[in-house]
Task: structure prediction
Amino acid sequence: MKHGGDIVSYQHLYHGPIIDFSSNINPLGYPEILSQVIANGLESLTAYPDIQYRALRQAIAKYLGCQPGEVIVGNGAVEIIDYFCKSYERIVVCIPCFSEYIERTYAHQKKTLKIPLPEDFILRVEVLKAQLNPGDVLMFGNPNNPTGLRIDKEELIRIQQFTEKQGAFLVLDEAFFEFCAEDYDSIRLFYGKENVCVIRAATKFFGLPGIRLGYAYAPPQIISHYNNSILPWRVNAIADLAGRVIFQEKEYIQETKQYVEQQRQFMLSQLRKIAGITVYPTDTNFILLKLWHATEDEIFERLIRQGLLIRKASSFEGLDNTYIRIAIKDQASNIKLIEALRNKNQITF
Amino acid sequence: MKHGGDIVSYQHLYHGPIIDFSSNINPLGYPEILSQVIANGLESLTAYPDIQYRALRQAIAKYLGCQPGEVIVGNGAVEIIDYFCKSYERIVVCIPCFSEYIERTYAHQKKTLKIPLPEDFILRVEVLKAQLNPGDVLMFGNPNNPTGLRIDKEELIRIQQFTEKQGAFLVLDEAFFEFCAEDYDSIRLFYGKENVCVIRAATKFFGLPGIRLGYAYAPPQIISHYNNSILPWRVNAIADLAGRVIFQEKEYIQETKQYVEQQRQFMLSQLRKIAGITVYPTDTNFILLKLWHATEDEIFERLIRQGLLIRKASSFEGLDNTYIRIAIKDQASNIKLIEALRNKNQITF
Result:
């Protein structure tokens, strides 16, 4: 299981709708206005999307607080990740991390340096010392997947300064950015820096994994090389349309932030009462758990038979088969998962 | 102008809706049922598309008359074209051809051998002799873009036999397949051949350039390598949904074939009455024209100021600036273009 969200593969194990805790999507769904916008905008399917995505990049730039010329768009964040894996000779990652950093590097037969994170999964500039070469790309999730941890602002500044000094490029995968506390914004922090790209997406926060819309703030030399090297029209007309609308939905954005924060506190407090698991802190909408006396397979099998799909975490290099990752979902679903995990008759940790 | 369909770039030259003769899309639009299917299926945006596209490949396989395991899907035909350009050391093309065969090869820093077509633009196996090496990919449009010509069945069989003998791979880009006469089907012709891939798409015939859905019939070793090397979820949920519906629309398919055939005969007969242009024969829904006494720029400029966007063809390597390409559209639009071309006061050939 390389990725979450693969309900189709498990549907035969449960008769009824499966609740998907294996992919980390906004439990409130996408902005309501979008249904109407798409229904009214189907005419856009009859033409190629603007090959330069001008209106889309303008909408994203407004949302990010930068210029349209500083924005690139992709078929999900993964296409922009792929661009770096394809264009640079070596990608430096800190494991455990999102598996595609490594997969895409393999796919393009480039090198990967995998630096293990310490036991608390917190990335500090020290672990990078003596590891980064000129021309490397340092790529990590901020917050990181599957750990859920965001890098402290001052530490992130130190890391960027270090990459710059080393002549390395820094790619921040911030697909979960909006779920985090508003203590800093990496784009503001590194605006104008020539060695930083900040990737984000509509996928997680805007509840649109099906639409495939990723984007990034990037420096000029990346922008032009990216636009010259990728497939034309890879963001489809519906994604183009959606991207021109969703980022304006300020109420929805606020509501989601509050709801997820509330559920995060609820989940963390409830999970911490359950014996036999370590609950890692999280800055985002998913939680990494360590099982003391059970394997991921045992828990997975029992939960899927109750219609609850979780993420086994051993597919993340650097984690063994005693970790699982769960999404923070709507309250009713969260309660179901907590109860299933609590039920000692069914699950022994 | 690398591609047609870029209305956005020319909108400032004409106040009103521009008629797009520069991209070759079904003038009847997409199948009517699709609007309802999408409006009812927006829930699919809230989950990742099936990472294996099982239902989609099944629908395509049924349409093509092959097995789901023999089908690959891509973000438009261009993603499958890109796969070959990335995976093989040398791509052999016959110019003029669709520019992406060459562009994608450049993008991946692979080699291209460009064989010029003869004056009549008809590909014969003889021009390939002494040109193909083992391991090469021979890639061409069938029918070819921008010439509009489909290869004669017997000649195509000879070409496939030759590639097989040479140890080369044959990629047929059949994005315009359904517009052609039903005299043969390359998939039936080469079913089970290990060195043939036939690419098709929803883009042109099903009137859905905005949706980005390409697919191909391919042999087993390509299927597994393709699926292991490309981006996950690159066909979005709406395209996935559409692909499960449109190929069943038999009435729509028949209606389109008849309508385009009728308009093709009309356009050809009308164009041939206009002095100063050579009208090439076509097997599909677009026509290549050679201008005797004018350049593409002169004609383009005059037509765009009347709201008619045509395709300048010098961007196709192998053609100079005295060629234009026009789509066959709905009757009213076609008449407008014919009249504009006829009007000797405005345009001198």
User: Anything to note?
Assistant: Chain A touches chain B through 51 residues (CB under 8 Å). The two ends of chain A are 22 Å apart (CA to CA).
